[in-house]
Specification:
two-stranded antiparallel sheet; 3 domains; 4-stranded mixed sheet
């Protein structure tokens, strides 16, 4: 956290506290605000500055938060202070498209049930200055709040949530400030009744879950639920390297271990290495196709699409028709929708060890390679495995309990790391209806993750 910047922002405001009280009461007010008591020397501004300058760096964030909570800061200073305070806090990312979907989802509801609390929420989140005028003395707000009041209170039939979000620049808020806005919007002060809180949360969560987050009941306050934005998926970080479409174990070395730069030392054509950033939308086919076009220097998009598909298909073992059927069924089922859908990546390396399992012994990692991986919106990671007889039987096709135990242990490891794991029995993918079953599975999977399809 940038403590010097925080001090620079707060010092002028603290100096203006000279107008809050006489010299006699400065010690009492300093104690109340958590500042050291200054000497009785100099002007009131000097004494306030002396108290603030004596504050230990470790206590500056706590003092700043106290001023925010007491609403002692102007809107712009408050926002600048909060942005610094939030520097070290986890960020729940909500892209602009999903924010717009939230606004549209709320259109069918009454947005708030207590105007004064809603107006205070807006003043606490946005930079809104109130001007005193003849109209304000009659009881109606003016300026920005007056415009909102006219649309949402006086003429409720004109209420348009998407217009409001545009008007207040909600779509361009920082992720932290947007989170605070949603939390305030679901509060008991703004919604009054638990039923209203639950209704607005339910409406929000449909578009929010599409980007991997939800408003969740995390606490209670005076008998009312308190909601906050939380991530749905538990993978520890965003993907950094994807090594896939590999029919053999890749020969890997670090070009630069400090920067995590990986190099395929030999047989580079036998695997693909995707190292571009993967955002909250996941890895879509169109992202993969663009990377392939750039990597292979293929200028024709249609040619890039075909050669990429053939390259992915070629890595699947010909000895496993069920795997190949699942792959081809996925890409043939959705037609023109495929570019915007998550890419189905075959033969993806999860663990990589320069030593063999025999060399590593009992400490060898399980599930070195995944049959298929999808990186979905919001950080969801889905692993699909096609189980042939070798997964649960020995070389003589007799049940092998140890082999099955290793399979189960590998699944637990993946799930604890934040992956969803789905298994198909090889026999399932060898009937005339197998392609239909694959299509239905993926439709249900995408529906579960709120991925929109035409």
């Amino acid at each position: 956290m940038d403590i010097p910047a925080l001090r620079d922002i707060l010092r002028p405001t603290v100096g203006d506290f000279k107008d809050l009280c006489t010299n006699t009461f400065i010690p009492e007010r300093c104690i109340e605000l958590g500042l050291p008591v200054p000497d009785d020397v100099g002007s009131k501004r000097d004494r306030w500055h002396a108290a603030f300058d004596a504050l230990e760096d470790i206590d500056v964030p706590r003092f700043a938060q106290g001023l925010v909570d007491r609403r002692h800061l102007s809107p712009q200073v408050r926002n600048d202070v909060q942005d610094i305070l939030w520097d070290d806090t986890p960020v729940v990312v909500i892209p602009k498209r999903h924010r717009r979907d939230v606004a549209r989802a709320l259109q069918s509801l009454v947005l708030f049930h207590h105007w004064e609390s809603f107006a205070q929420l807006l003043k606490d989140v946005f930079v809104i200055y109130e001007a005193v005028s003849w109209a304000s003395l009659t009881g109606e707000p003016t300026g920005v709040l007056g415009e909102i009041f006219r649309h949402f209170v006086r003429n409720e039939e004109d209420a348009n949530v998407e217009w409001l979000f545009d008007y207040l620049t909600v779509f361009d808020l920082s992720d932290n400030r947007f989170s605070v806005f949603l939390k305030g919007l679901t509060s008991a002060d703004v919604q009054i009744d638990i039923e209203h809180q639950m209704s607005i949360v339910a409406a929000m969560n449909v578009p929010l879950k599409a980007c991997g987050v939800e408003m969740r009941h995390i606490d209670e306050h005076e008998g009312y639920p308190v909601y906050s934005l939380v991530a749905l998926h538990t993978a520890h970080a965003r993907p950094k390297n994807l090594i896939f479409a590999s029919s053999i174990k890749p020969d890997i070395r670090f070009r630069d271990a400090v920067n995590n730069d990986i190099e395929i030392a030999s047989n580079a054509n036998d695997c693909l290495f995707y190292d571009r950033p993967i955002g909250v939308e996941g890895l879509r086919w169109k992202d993969l196709q663009q990377w392939w076009a750039d990597t292979s220097m293929e200028k024709d998009p249609q040619a890039a699409k075909k050669t990429l598909y053939q390259r992915l298909l070629s890595c699947l073992p010909k000895s496993s028709p069920p795997q190949r059927l699942l792959f081809t069924s996925f890409y043939s089922a959705f037609g023109k929708e495929i570019p915007d859908l998550p890419a189905l990546l075959p033969e993806v390396w999860l663990h990589w060890d320069p030593k063999t399992v025999a060399q590593r012994g009992v400490h060898a990692l399980l599930n070195h390679r995944m049959d298929f991986l999808l990186l979905l919106p919001g950080g969801a990671r889905v692993v699909i495995e096609v189980d042939g007889v070798q997964h649960y039987a020995d070389d003589n096709c007799r049940a092998d309990t140890r082999r099955y135990a290793r399979l189960a242990a590998g699944d637990r490891e993946l799930k604890l790391a934040g992956y969803e794991v789905y298994r198909f029995g090889g026999i399932e993918l060898q009937s005339p209806q197998s392609s239909i079953m694959v299509e239905q599975f993926f439709k249900a999977l995408f529906s579960r993750h709120h991925i929109r399809m035409n």
